Amino acid sequence: MKASQLFDLNGKVAVVTGASRGIGEAIAQVLSDNGAHVVVASRRLERCEEVAADLRAAGGQATALACHVGEMAAIEAFWAAIDARFERVDILVNNAGSNPIFGPVTETDPAAFQKTVDVNFRGYWFMCQYAVARMRRHGGGSIVNMASVTAERPMENIGVYGATKAAVVNLTQAYARECAQYGVRVNAILPGLINTKFAAALQTEGPVRTAALAQIPLRRIGDPIDIAGAALFLASGASSYMTGATLRIDGGLLA
Ligand SMILES: NC(=O)c1ccc[n+]([C@@H]2O[C@H](COP(=O)([O-])OP(=O)(O)OC[C@H]3O[C@@H](n4cnc5c(N)ncnc54)[C@H](OP(=O)(O)O)[C@@H]3O)[C@@H](O)[C@H]2O)c1
What we know:
The chain is built from 7 helices and 7 strands. The protein is of the alpha/beta class. The protein is globular and about 50 Å long.
């Protein structure tokens, strides 16, 4: 591969979940800007249509498709829709995430626990399974799983979320080991605190934001584009000798 083509995604089809806003939307933009046909997926088809329309208006290729990654039937229907429209899938960015619980581990509500596991763990697992089945037909692909710094360092009041993200790191390594033989690479990103709806409590000035910033050596909350650059790297040929790896993008939080 020529150095000038390291990040070139022309001719590739990329599925991005949770692409209706936040980190996923930024990743969809970056992959589209670099030539991929991006499938913009989340539960809200209307919002995905808007994001896809923006990508097309910017000169890219994009298709919106609904997918609730916490529901097995929805995952199956999503891949049937992919098969009906595309001959290949080269990239999957498993980015959709849920964190319905904020509170002590000792008071975890079983229904909220189950929802977190269904979206963040079971959903990622089976999205990988469906993607690998397609990627191996044409010699391989790249999967990028969105974990979190909480995978390595649990944080108070979001214990279940952190445990599912630790599971994402483990499943990334398991898929990486077994799917290298098919040419499929599988890596994970561990974002720190990023400016999105997910981390809304950190966006307004106040003691929570001040305490968070004090722990980040780069002294700022990250932006979705900070994560999108890493996703492009892992999705593209630039990372062709990487699989089973985790990239921390956290302003130094875990250093
Ligand atoms: N922001 C941070 O500080 C931070 C830090 C570490 C890790 N992360 C991880 O980064 C990823 C993206 O987070 P974000 O900050 O961009 O969050 P966000 O702005 O809240 O966006 C979440 C996205 O996921 C989609 N989504 C939620 N539940 C879904 C489901 N069951 N099925 C399909 N799509 C679903 C949402 O769209 P719909 O509502 O349309 O479904 C939305 O597009 C998550 O995995 C999160 O855990 C974020």
